Amino acid sequence: MEERQFFDEMLDESGGARAPYRDLAKWLEGKNPAELKKKSREAEVIFRRLGITFAVYGTSEATERLIPFDIMPRIISASEWRRLSAGIDQRVKALNAFLHDIYHRQEIIRAGRVPADLVIQNEAFLPEMIGFTPPAKVYAHIIGTDIVRVGANEFYVLEDNTRTPSGVSYMLENRETMMRLFPELFRTHRVAPVEHYPDLLKETLKSVAPDGVDDPTICVLTPGIFNSAYFEHAFLADTMGAELVEGRDLYVEGGKVWMRTTRTPQQVHVIYRRIDDAFLDPLTFRPESMLGVPGLFDAYRAGNVTICNAPGTGIADDKAIYAYVPDIIEFYTGQKPILNNVPTWNCAKEDDLKYVLDHLAEVVVKEVHGSGGYGMLIGPTSSKRELAEFRKRLEANPKNYIAQPTLSLSTCPTHSSSGVAPRHVDLRPYVLVGDKVRITPGGLTRVALKKGSLVVNSSQGGGTKDTWVLED
After folding, report:
1. Cross-referenced Gene3D superfamilies, in alphabetical order (predicted)?
2. 269: burial class by Cβ within 10 Å (0-12, 13-18, 19+)?
């Protein structure tokens, strides 16, 4: 086996299978490589037939690509999951309390726990949201919390995705594909179900409908078919029994939002939006936007429609704010964080910038507002030329970057061209916040399919796995 300097989630130091993986290890002993290759090809056919693709931006071809899927499951024990879910629950409640506070009394700023300029001057902070309280005081209803593991009991939150996190459709399709390919494995493992996520999403969205609305009309607002996550938008609308709409399908009249239909217009009460803040309403935000709905924000502030996630939630997953999340958790919950942050240097600080520039070949540098693995530098795997170019970017605009140590991400068994081998992984559990917090057991495991790679994003050559949380 490869890369034993990293924590191997399947094998212990002596080469024996750890408890959660023992049944899988026995099953693997009886499988020949040809059979696994055949199953991998079958999975690819299934995904191709379903049209599970994503777009890669910034490339010359910018084409749709098939999401690479690995047929080896990632397994998490019940006790490990209890700790993870408790930490996630604590974190999402604190982030929602933070969002309510910064758009109201700003007590955390008054207390000196978070710098004022980091909030007020942040491009993700929306002054238009000041003084407005959404239903149930929930701002971030759908959250993807990225978690990495570096040891037996060492889990870290890498980032919080509170705007429009994607990937949940892959989690659901991964499970369905695995159940079709390997039904015998589900007979020998008590795997917590994930297929009820669309029902939980619908319950969550219904629970934050405007006051007095018992049977809300819900729609999913998409930018359209050219968006990289359009498959997911359509998938979730279909599985929830909600309408999939574009901005042109909606209009505002009498302070309410209406959906055009083949019959009479229908009032919309909850919008699960998958477009960015700036494009939501050309009358309030970017006037040239053709994706949003004129007047939508006024209808929202009037309490006649709920937007999920709320405009202005992006500041809670800003990478500069991330360094303060442990303080945010303590401030609003009175508790220490259950899940730790990754140590972070804020390049806007002179001392932090100096350290990063002196150790550029050792750290990972990320754009404050970046996502998807774009605009980042992984020092240990970068060439001298790449390091020199990134150094210039850092020096020219240090406020745009944070840096973190290069983590020794754990590995999981992964099917490769040479057989089953360890590859680095992370985890994105999906959290729903409404009348209560609902966490789907497991989430989406992303895997770096290239040997030695630490970048798991599909846009950068990564793939996905089915994630199994074992029940007691």
Report:
1. 3.30.1490.270, 3.40.50.11290
2. buried
Do 322 and 188 sit in the same domain of this protein? yes
Residues 179 and 312 occupy one common structural domain: yes
Q: Rounded CA gap, 408 and 149, in Å?
A: 8
Domain closes at, from 355, 373, 405: 405
What is the CA angle 400-405-407, rounded to 5?
Answer: 125
Domain-located, residue 4? no
CA atoms within a 13 Å half-sphere pointing along the CA-CB vector of 205 = 28
Compute the average pLDDT of residues 124-137. 96
351 in a domain, yes or no? yes
pLDDT digits (tens, 9 = 90+) for 416-466: 988 899 999 999 999 999 999 999 999 999 999 888 887 787 666 789 999
pTM of the model: 0.92
Quote the distance between the C-alpha of residue 374 and its chain's center: 15
Same domain as 206, residue 216:
no
Residues 30-64: tens digit of each pLDDT? 899 999 999 999 999 998 888 776 555 444 444 56
Distance of alpha carbon 379 from alpha carbon 362, whole angstroms: 5
Residues 289 and 149 reside in one and the same domain: no
Q: Which two tokens stand for residue 102?
A: 């910064």
Question: What does the alpha-carbon distance between residue 249 and residue 238 come to, in Å, rounded to a whole number?
Answer: 17
Q: Tell me the backbone φ, ψ of residue 247, rounded to 5 degrees.
A: -55, -35
Q: Indicate if 334 and 349 belong to the same structural domain.
A: no
Residue 451: half-sphere exposure toward Cβ, Cα within 13 Å: 11
